Each structure stands twice: as C-alpha cells, then as structure tokens.
Automatic annotation (TrEMBL):
<dbReference type="Pfam" id="PF13561">
    <property type="entry name" value="adh_short_C2"/>
</dbReference>
<protein>
    <submittedName>
        <fullName>Unannotated protein</fullName>
    </submittedName>
</protein>
<dbReference type="InterPro" id="IPR036291">
    <property type="entry name" value="NAD(P)-bd_dom_sf"/>
</dbReference>
<comment type="similarity">
    <text>Belongs to the short-chain dehydrogenases/reductases (SDR) family.</text>
</comment>
<dbReference type="InterPro" id="IPR020904">
    <property type="entry name" value="Sc_DH/Rdtase_CS"/>
</dbReference>
<dbReference type="InterPro" id="IPR002347">
    <property type="entry name" value="SDR_fam"/>
</dbReference>
<dbReference type="GO" id="GO:0016491">
    <property type="term" value="F:oxidoreductase activity"/>
</dbReference>
<keyword id="KW-0560">Oxidoreductase</keyword>
Length: 252
C-alpha cells in the first residue's frame, strides 16, 4: 500500500459503517486522505472512525441518510470547499423478488438508495469539484449491472440505471476535470445479505443457478483496492469505465 497515494486529499465515502464502504474509508485514510465517513448506522460509523484514527488516520463520522437531501447538504457542507474524492458505496438489496412479485415499497426503497441516493450526493458534490477543476467519483455498482442472476428485479434494474449515471457524469463532466467510474463487484463478504432475506423461494433457486458459477466471495478490501486506484491519479486516463471486479463471475 502507498501511504502517500491520496496525501492531502479530502474524500467522502458513503456506506462507511460496513463492508465495502468501511474498507474503502479505511484504505483511503491509510493512503493519506482525510475521510468523511457517511452512513445511517452511527455505531458502525464510530467503529470505522475509531479504527482509522487509532491507526493514525484522519476521519470524521457523519450520520447521513442518502435518501434525505438535507443530510446530503449537511455532509457536503461539512466536507468543506474542496472534495477530491467521492466514493458512492451505500446500497441495499431487494429480497431477490422477481418482477411478478415485487411490491412498490421494495422497488421505491431500492431505487431511492441505490440510484437516487447516488444522484443526490453526486449532484451536490459536482459543483465543489467543478470549482477546483478536478475530482474523482467512484461508484460501487455491481455485477448485477451486466446480468440478472445476482439479485431480484429492483436491485438489478437500479444497478443497470446507476451504471448509466456513472457514464453520464463521465461524459458531461470529463471536460471539467471530473472523472466518474464504477466498480462492479461480484459476491463480497459483507453484511448486505443479512439485511435482506429472500422472499420468493423459486426465484432464489433460479438465482442460485447463476451463483453456482461464481468463485468464493471476495473480501471488502479487494474491492476497496480497485476503488482507491480509480480515485487516484494513476487512473487519470480512466473515465466512464465500469470495472468488473467479480473474479470472472460475469464471464459465465
Ligand atoms: N456484498 C456484495 O456481494 C456486493 C456485490 C456487488 C455490489 N455490492 C454493492 O456494494 C455496496 C456496499 O454494500 P456492502 O456489500 O458493503 O453491504 P453492507 O450492508 O455491508 O454495507 C452497506 C452500508 O450502506 C449503508 N446504507 C444503507 N442504506 C443507507 C442510506 N440510506 N444512507 C446511507 N447509508 C446507507 C448501510 O448502513 C451499510 O453500512 C452496495 O452498493 C452494494 O449494492 C455488494
């Protein structure tokens, strides 16, 4: 690990209380960034912040629900007049519900976090990056943006949509020095499965057929590595890319 890779940079990481977001906050801080760690889970955030600060890093824990515009505004205001890195990581699953069984509540909740949450925060951060003429945005998408066997219809659709958001930001803001890329993990050892129980057994059985071809789950830091690289100057020519980080699952 290069402890100076992000030296002096200011980074916002959502979903930082758990899993990939937590690993990303820890990695960016270890690589020199001052991290604003955001999540709805205050206890988890405190644990992330304490792990970072006890290792000599700089971290501010900010309670932020990405579905709430006032939380987004407060987070961006707290980060200050310069934001170098935005890692959109917060996301939720959808109970593996196929289209014929999905309810409006699940659909709306999944889209509100996985798509509109990313839109809200990115929209708030872009003017700050524009003002300094640079910035790197990395959004955690999913292998579910290129296939349908990893989740139910709401999650898969939200991840396909957020892949479009990633590219749109890259296309329109690349000329202003802002890069936007996505990381598409396969299965990762996090808490996401514990927060969303499968509700349609036959659809889960069908999803398992797709999962049979996947390698053992990755660890969150393996995904954080890719996020950090995309956020760094080493990836200065990479804009609008959707990086599969799934150990080959999508090739099946
Ligand atoms: N774990 C996997 O297998 C996997 C695979 C592909 C993509 N992903 C994506 O990775 C991202 C991170 O998920 P994870 O696997 O680390 O899950 P996780 O459940 O361990 O962590 C997700 C975090 O997001 C937070 N969060 C949820 N709703 C929020 C909201 N409204 N506002 C702010 N924070 C909120 C949670 O509190 C939690 O801390 C998600 O976007 C997910 O879709 C995960």
């Amino acid at each position: 690990m290069d402890t100076t890779r992000h030296a002096g940079r200011i980074a916002i990481v959502t979903g930082a209380a758990s899993g990939i977001g937590k690993a990303t906050a820890i990695r960016l801080a270890a690589e020199g960034a001052q991290v604003f760690a955001a999540d709805i889970n205050v206890e988890g955030l405190a644990a992330t912040a304490s792990e970072i600060t006890s290792a000599g890093g700089v971290c501010t824990a900010v309670k932020c629900d990405v579905t709430q515009q006032q939380d987004i505004n407060a987070l961006v205001a707290q980060a200050g007049s310069r934001i170098d890195i935005l890692a959109n990581v917060a996301g939720i699953m959808d109970h593996f519900l196929p289209l014929g069984e999905v309810d409006d509540e699940t659909w709306d909740e999944v889209f509100d976090v996985n798509l509109k949450g990313v839109m809200r925060l990115t929209r708030a951060v872009i003017p700050v990056m524009e003002a300094s003429g640079k910035g790197s945005i990395v959004t955690v998408v999913s292998k579910a943006a290129v296939g349908a066997g990893a989740a139910g219809v709401a999650y898969t659709s939200s991840k396909h949509a957020v892949a479009g958001l990633v590219k749109s930001v890259a296309y329109f803001y690349g000329s202003k020095g802002i890069r936007s890329n996505g990381v598409l993990p396969g299965a990762v050892n996090t808490n996401i499965g514990t927060t969303s129980t499968p509700k349609a057994p036959w659809a889960m059985e069908r999803a398992l057929l797709s999962m049979a071809s996947m390698q053992p789950p990755a660890e969150p830091d393996q995904i954080a590595t890719a996020i950090s690289w995309l956020a760094s100057d080493e990836a200065s020519n990479v804009n609008g890319s959707l990086l599969l980080d799934d150990n080959g699952w999508a090739t099946a």
